[in-house]
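Work Package 3 (structural annotation) set out to generate three-dimensional models for the target panel prioritized at the project kickoff. During this period the team completed the workflow that converts sequence records into discrete structure tokens, so that structures can be stored uniformly alongside our sequence database. As a representative example, we reproduce one entry of 273 residues exactly as it appears in the project archive.
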Amino acid sequence: MSARKLLVVNADDFGFTPDVNQGIVEAHRGGILTATTLMANGAAFDDAVRRGREAPALDIGCHLVLVGGPSLLTGKPLPATVPQLLRAMARRQIRIYDELAAQVRRIVQAGIRPTHLDTHKHTHLAPPVLDAVARLAAEFGIRWVRRPFDFPLSAPPGAAPRMKRLASGALGLLRKRFQGTLARRGCRTTDHFAGFQITGRWRTAELVTLLGALPGGSTELMCHPGRCSEPLRHARTRLKESREHELEALMARETREALERNQIELVNYRGLP
């Protein structure tokens, strides 16, 4: 018998702006979204906490941030880009563990019991960040950590640019150390992951195609739904109108039909075996 297909649909950036928060909750209540991760330094953190309380079935984790927004330790801006972060790490100008620990504590102190961890811009692919994330997962009893290595997928032309596909393949070279670090701390990951290659570039048709290729076992689908109104339009991010497209796809009738056709079970991290 083939393995069951279990799918966690997880939205990044809860707490980024109020309209992103709105879209995430809409995708949960009216679509297939089952989980999200909260930015402790997000401008709309309090709004996200309130909305999370009003949607108790929404599984909430921590979206740990070392790129963009204010530091919870110093109040000063964090590095604006990944290259700036890597330079700051090389010069030992950023206290990685302390910064991320402050973010987890803020989420816990807001009354949320996070079930999973991931990082903004996938910075836990860098060994020093991964070490801190794995340590925090063990210390706070957070069982699940994202493994941001896409399962192989033949995307439609234009859905995933060539450089994005090459980057995804290069990330796979880090897999062995990544898994070993998490295993030593008792952390778990889903069997598969999807969403890196097509971030900001998919609609309903691409989502239906992805669901048709879903392998057996557990998979996390990373997504970025949201409403795109004034707060998001003025925010520093390339993902603006695309969030509306993802929200529409997550709520589409064709998506529900694809789940049924491919015998995919929607779960959250609390529901994974």
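The CA atoms of residues 164 and 260 lie 30 Å apart.
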